Each structure stands twice: as C-alpha cells, then as structure tokens.
Amino acid sequence: MQQDMAGLFQVLKGKPDGTFAAATTLLGIDGEPLIIPIASREEMTKNICTRPTAVDWDGDGDLDLVVGNFAGSFYVFDGKGQGEFFPKPEPIMVGDKPLQITGAHSDPFVIDWDNDGDLDLVSGSSNGGVQWSENQAGAGKKPELTKFKTLIAAKPRTSSSMFLKESELTGPTQSTRVWVDDVNSDGKLDILVGDSVALVSRAAGVSEQEFAAKYADWQKEFNVAMKEYSSAKEPEERRKVSQRYQEVYQQRSKLLTEERTGFVWLYVQK
Prior knowledge:
alpha+beta
C-alpha cells in the first residue's frame, strides 16, 4: 500500500507469479476514494496523508487503516472486513484533544512497544527524532493513548547554508521515518530510522577566504530578491521577480556544492 500527495491511498495487489498489478485507489464502501475530509484550504495539511498502516486497531477482528498527515495528527478508517473500509475516518484522540506529535508529518508505526499486550503508536517527525504514544487500554481493546514521549531525541537541525560532511553526522537529522523490528533476533524491538539531510561543502576551486566574501555578497542579493518576491502583488510583477529570485538562487551553486540525501540509522535496544 502507498499514499500520494493528494491524500489518496493506493494498493498494488500481488499476483501468483510474485509480480504486482497496477496501483488502484483504495475506495470506501460508498465507492469514493478514502480521504480525510477538510472544511477549507487552510486545513489542507490534515488532508495530505502519510504512511497508511493496516492493523486491527479496535480489536474487532477486521483490519483498520491508521494514517498520519502533514499536520502531525492521526486518523483511523474503520475496517468493515474483506478489505473494505467505512469512508469517514475518526481522529485519534488523547482525552478530548487530537493526538499530535511534536513537529509535523506524522509517521504512524503500530507496535506493542512496551510488550504489555496492546498496540502502541511510534512515529517519526519533521523535527527529527522518534516519539512514542503508550496505549493504556489493555489487549484487545480500542486503544487509549497518552501524549507522545521521546524515544530518540531529535538532533540539532541542519540547513542548506551550513557546511556538513557525511563524516560529521552522529545520528538522524530531520524528516524522520521509522520501522520497528527485532533486527538482531535477541527478543527485543529495535528501531530503524530514515532521515533527510543536505550535505554541503564549498564548490571546487573556491578558497575559504574567497567563499566568505562572495557568500556574504550573494546573501545580500538573495535577501533583496526574496523581499521583492514577497511584496509583489500583481501576477506580471510576481512573474518577473520570481524569475529574478530563481536566477539569484542558482548563483549559489557557484559557491556551494549541495547533495540532498538521507540515511538509515539502526538503534538496538539494550
């Protein structure tokens, strides 16, 4: 199963020969695509979903769909059985408030993290790190979750204006995604964490002294272009300043080499 930027979920059904059929949009029992409803464009981040997880969330024997979103909250599409789902999702709550990670881009991984027989919720975050919401309901019951606690603290955020080498990384940075499993078969759950990072260094042939002066000049010019873009009102004016903004930004590549990438980190539970 996968999701897309429109908030839809798609399923690639397996074939007997080990291949998969073309992706199809997952529909509710009303024949319409499963999607988190929103009241206005201002709520669009709630509508754009992340990581659908099929699990028997409420203990009734049917698979439900636990999903995150760009806003950092969580929803459940109740399963009807036989791969069918009711169309209206319910927000996952803590008391009378929606369960919310610190940061955005909730990344639900459903697992019995504390080995007490019920399903907990583990999540990555746009801020980095890994968070855990404990289920206090007990086995086979609809989860009653606590506010998120920190399992793995977020590292200091990086930016594309900071010099950073791969050898300087000590852990996952931001935009973390998690997977929980007993990787080393010792009976304890471990955590795999993926991240996103920009490795930045001076462009070839640019000395440290030369870089300091030229980058300061570029930053001033970029700030002016960004201010002009932000204040432009009319469409034609915005088109012109947008082009200027792009031209100035592209000049940065003469001073810096930037590689946008990501890594997978393994945390072995003691």
